[in-house]
């Protein structure tokens, strides 16, 4: 590597990596091993009780098999050949609706199914064969948009009949239910939702229903007549494209609108049960950063997952997929996931029973992994997110990175795991303490240092490489930044050895001052209890029975202590088992052994990796949700990474005198 003279930000040509093995598995809020790949658009998914997944769209191949417009996948994304190969649908499949008996209603742009005429609407048996006992009898030019299934088995169908647009109701065999007073719409109703009381909410591109003004949204009574107690909030623009009903009767709407109920509500809004705007939901979007929100669903915890065509939400990078808190603010604990390049258009969305998120749209990569039009994102419904340390490019993998002390013009260099290229910048001085972590909540590590002589923090924002500085701490303190309040942003914090006191400046507001520790203790803060908040913790080299670990759990305030290691061991805390909790761990330089105490059951395992003189550099280098053992060898500036999924990586990166950044918090 060459030294820099005058430099602010620089990107360089890619570097060759020696990688043994491959990475396929991902964890929290990132791509998992589900990767079937399709050659065209995915319009809908249907997770089945068996764990298998129906996929519909306009594709002709999926999961490596020729299959037109509909397929069934196994839970791991492989092709399910037991779903009848006779199923051939001449046109798009836009929607699935599961019946309680296991049969599947499909709607779309097709004309035949298995060679049998079924214009726009059909029903399949569980094995994929056509259910010939169901026939709606539609003929061209009838068009059908999204359908809805009533609890009694009857089916609501928005369709155009010879230029007249209506919502009709069909009996279980597909015949028309003449008792339903089918209202006439002035435009297409593209979404129907049935409330628990049997009333029907319709959204779309219409302006009137039965001749009565109802712009883009209306509610019908069970018999099809207009519910006059429900009024439209009169959004601007062209339509409401999606509606998600909440358990309390409120409803989330999305579409190309920017004004709802006379107030600015770009693309997302929440309505009260009578159709008026709920002003308690503060819209997180800021035009023109959101171009359109297409679909959404509510998690059991009340948070709203949305997909669409957007780059940012409320000024924070969120490309095509985001999660919104119940008050309308952006949930920063749900990270930004890179879907390909440019602005993605994610058009299909379903939540699996296990909380995983199925998405489909115009993207070919996710987190740098090839994914043709379809992906599955792992997520829990608690809002907790796995934060990858030293991830400077936001691809959910720890990056090889070094700090080059050079007086007042010290440099940072890192190798981007997302592209293979490297970058460098000048920031800080030789005597500064490295404190890189995600202070802004955008899912990327910010270059940062703490100056012991002044107690000043300097943070270089990963979003735009602007910087800010502030005082917190004093000479002699140990900087211990982490997310102590669980808001998705790291907090400035110091451990004052002279008074054994922790000072935490919370990004959510306020300062915590906590006495915890004894003389000679070293801070080893991490999220040991898996609640999304860093726990105050210390490593006591000279405990009564050897080295001790003391942890103050943020989840309940209880203190846990255990003996593990010796006074000369190096602490290498991290989640090595992938359970979402930090494991107590140390590296013994005299033997090169890593010793891990599993958080699940407090059993331990050990293995050799590294040698005397190495710097331990733990992190998740292969992005599988588990920490990897790694060392930086200063004698030849070589990195050795034992990937838990991706095999062993050996990479020269750095020059004599460089300090490995992932060693910053090793004590």
Architecture blueprint of SSEs:
Elements: E1 10-11, E2 18-19, E3 42-47, E4 53-57, E5 61-62, E6 65-66, E7 70-73, E8 93-98, E9 104-108, E10 112-113, E11 116-117, E12 121-124, E13 143-144, E14 148-149, E15 155-161, E16 164-170, E17 184-185, E18 189-194, E19 200-204, E20 208-209, E21 212-213, E22 217-220, E23 242-245, E24 251-254, E25 259-260, E26 263-264, E27 268-271, E28 290-298, E29 304-310, E30 312-313, E31 316-317, E32 321-324, E33 346-351, E34 357-361, E35 365-366, E36 369-370, E37 374-377, E38 400-404, E39 411-415, E40 422-426, E41 433-434, E42 447-451, E43 456-460, E44 467-471, E45 478-479, E46 492-496, E47 501-505, E48 511-515, E49 522-523, E50 536-543, E51 546-552, E52 559-563, E53 570-571, E54 584-588, E55 593-597, E56 604-608, E57 615-616, E58 629-633, E59 638-643, E60 647-652, E61 659-660
Antiparallel strand pairs: 1-40, 2-60, 3-4, 4-7, 5-6, 8-9, 9-12, 10-11, 13-15, 14-15, 15-16, 16-17, 18-19, 19-22, 20-21, 23-24, 24-27, 25-26, 28-29, 29-32, 30-31, 33-34, 34-37, 35-36, 38-39, 38-61, 39-40, 41-42, 42-43, 43-44, 45-46, 46-47, 47-48, 49-50, 50-51, 51-52, 53-54, 54-55, 55-56, 57-58, ...
């Amino acid at each position: 590597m060459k030294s820099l003279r005058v430099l602010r930000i620089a990107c360089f040509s890619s570097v060759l990596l020696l990688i043994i093995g491959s990475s396929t598995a991902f964890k929290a809020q990132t791509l998992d091993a589900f990767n079937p790949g399709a050659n065209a658009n995915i319009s809908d998914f249907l997770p089945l009780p068996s764990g298998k997944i129906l996929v519909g769209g306009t594709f002709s191949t999926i999961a490596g098999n020729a299959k037109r417009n509909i397929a069934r996948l196994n839970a791991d994304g492989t092709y399910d050949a037991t779903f009848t190969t006779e199923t051939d649908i001449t046109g798009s499949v836009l929607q699935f609706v599961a019946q309680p008996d296991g049969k599947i209603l499909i709607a779309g742009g097709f004309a035949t199914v298995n060679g049998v005429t079924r214009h726009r609407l059909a029903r399949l048996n569980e094995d994929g064969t056509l259910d010939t006992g169901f026939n709606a009898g539609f003929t061209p030019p009838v068009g059908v948009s999204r359908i809805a299934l009533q609890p009694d088995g009857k089916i609501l169908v928005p369709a155009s009949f010879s230029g007249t647009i209506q919502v009709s109701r069909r009996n279980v065999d597909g015949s028309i239910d003449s008792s339903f007073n089918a209202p006439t719409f002035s435009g297409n109703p593209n979404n129907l939702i049935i409330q628990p009381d049997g009333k029907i909410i319709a959204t779309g591109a219409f302006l009137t229903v039965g001749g009565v003004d109802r712009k883009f949204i209306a509610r019908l009574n069970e018999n099809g007549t207009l519910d006059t107690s429900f009024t439209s909030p009169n959004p601007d623009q062209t339509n409401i494209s999606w509606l998600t009903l909440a358990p309390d009767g409120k409803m989330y709407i999305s579409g190309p609108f920017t004004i709802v109920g006379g107030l600015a509500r770009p693309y997302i809004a929440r309505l009260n049960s009578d159709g008026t705007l709920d002003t308690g939901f503060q819209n997180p979007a800021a035009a023109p950063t959101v171009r359109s929100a297409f679909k959404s669903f509510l998690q059991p915890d009340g948070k709203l997952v949305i997909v669409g065509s957007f780059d940012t939400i409320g000024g924070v990078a969120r490309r095509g997929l985001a999660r919104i808190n119940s008050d309308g603010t952006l949930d920063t604990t749900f990270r930004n996931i890179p879907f390909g390049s440019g602005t993605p258009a994610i058009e299909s969305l379903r939540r699996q029973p296990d909380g995983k998120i199925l998405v489909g749209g115009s993207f070919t990569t996710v987190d740098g992994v090839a994914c043709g039009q379809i992906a599955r994102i792992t997520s829990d419904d608690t809002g907790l997110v796995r934060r990858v340390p030293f991830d400077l490019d936001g691809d959910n993998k720890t990056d090889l990175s070094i700090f080059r002390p050079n007086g007042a013009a010290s440099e940072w260099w890192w190798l981007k795991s997302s592209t293979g290229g490297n970058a460098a910048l000048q920031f800080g001085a030789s005597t500064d303490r490295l404190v890189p972590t995600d202070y802004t909540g955008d899912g990327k590590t910010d270059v940062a240092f703490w100056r012991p002589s002044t107690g000043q923090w300097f943070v270089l924002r990963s979003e735009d490489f602007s910087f800010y500085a502030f005082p917190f701490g004093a000479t002699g303190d140990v900087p211990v930044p982490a997310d102590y309040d669980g808001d998705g942003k790291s907090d400035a914090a110091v451990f004052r050895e002279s008074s054994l006191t922790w000072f935490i400046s919370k990004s959510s507001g306020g300062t915590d001052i906590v006495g915890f520790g004894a003389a000679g203790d070293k801070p080893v803060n991490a999220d040991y209890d898996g609640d999304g908040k860093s726990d105050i913790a210390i490593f006591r080299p000279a405990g009564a029975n050897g080295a001790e670990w003391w942890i103050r759990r943020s989840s309940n305030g209880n203190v846990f202590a255990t003996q593990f290691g010796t006074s000369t061991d190096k602490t290498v805390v991290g989640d090595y088992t992938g359970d979402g909790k930090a494991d107590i761990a140390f590296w013994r330089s005299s033997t090169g052994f890593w010793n891990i105490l599993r958080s699940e059951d407090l059993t331990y395992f050990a293995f050799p990796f590294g040698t005397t003189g190495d710097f331990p550099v733990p992190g998740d280098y292969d992005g599988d949700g588990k920490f990897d053992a790694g060392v930086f060898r200063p004698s030849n500036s070589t990195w050795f990474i034992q990937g838990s999924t991706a095999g062993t990586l050996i990479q020269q990166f750095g020059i004599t005198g460089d300090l490995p950044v992932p060693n910053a918090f090793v004590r």
